[in-house]
Amino acid sequence: xxxxxxxxxxxxxxxxxxxxxxxxxxxxxxxxxxxxxxxxxxxxxxxxxxxxxxxxxxxxxxxxxxxxxxxxxxxxxxxxxxxxxxxxxxxxxxxxxxxxxxxxxxxxxxxxxxxxxxxxxxxxx
Amino acid sequence: xxxxxxxxxxxxxxxxxxxxxxxxxxxxxxxxxxxxxxxxxxxxxxxxxxxxxxxxxxxxxxxxxxxxxxxxxxxxxxxxxxxxxxxxxxxxxxxxxxxxxxxxxxxxxxxxxxxxxxxxxxxxxxxxxxxxxxxxxxxxxxxxxxxxxxxxxxxxxxxxxxxxxxxxxxxxx
Lengths: 125, 173
Hints:
Largest sheet of chain A: 5 strands, parallel
Order of helices and strands of chain A: EHEHEHEHEH
Distance between the termini of chain A: 17 Å
Oligomer: heterodimer
Largest interface: A-B, 22 and 24 residues
Strand order of the largest sheet of chain A: 2-1-3-4-5
Radius of gyration of chain A: 13 Å
Number of helices of chain A: 5
Number of strands of chain B: 7
């Protein structure tokens, strides 16, 4: 059993799908935090220590890339892997995500196996 | 480099057989991978909503950038419940109206995003809007005269049909 995960997506449905994919991949977390946008996620990270962040890019209020920039500038969740989970898979989006500190990138639609192969190496590192 | 001349924009041939085949493949992949449901293009008449239609859920996402247009999906309420329940991993979604709207919006996002990501001329230079979900069936969409429309239908499960409409606004692209 892992510690705490934060899933950031404006779709409650997609948050459930991401969590289910992680569970099917054999990754169970003791505590699951959910945020509907980047701003809400930043507030949660000020109060909680997490082991993994799964984050959408296109969200209202504060998108995933902005959230990552703020995360780094506020020195929050240092060394916590952040995996972007999004339909946007252009090389420019990937480049931007890596530039602001994303540890991994998963394109929707995804299988539990794809999630497993992207996430487990990050947690083991 | 993004397409930057009229010739290049016209050459995109947004509704070419190849691009429409990509849409069919996208829908099938999403249903199989994310929902565990087999779906296939079918001959059900893809059309505008009618007065005698069953209550439905409609989700719309806009394309902006190298093309201007939108992607619309429409499902009857029973079909929406099947899709939502599958997304939830088999949990009955019958009473979960908010979750059904969320699911149909996300499905539209996956379809529109998945389609454009398969097309190199669109993937780098086209963005998606957030999804809008409409409940009810008696709405009328008015489109500019130069708009191109492609309607498609996909069948799954117990006689359920996914109606998909692609709109390409040639005048504003």
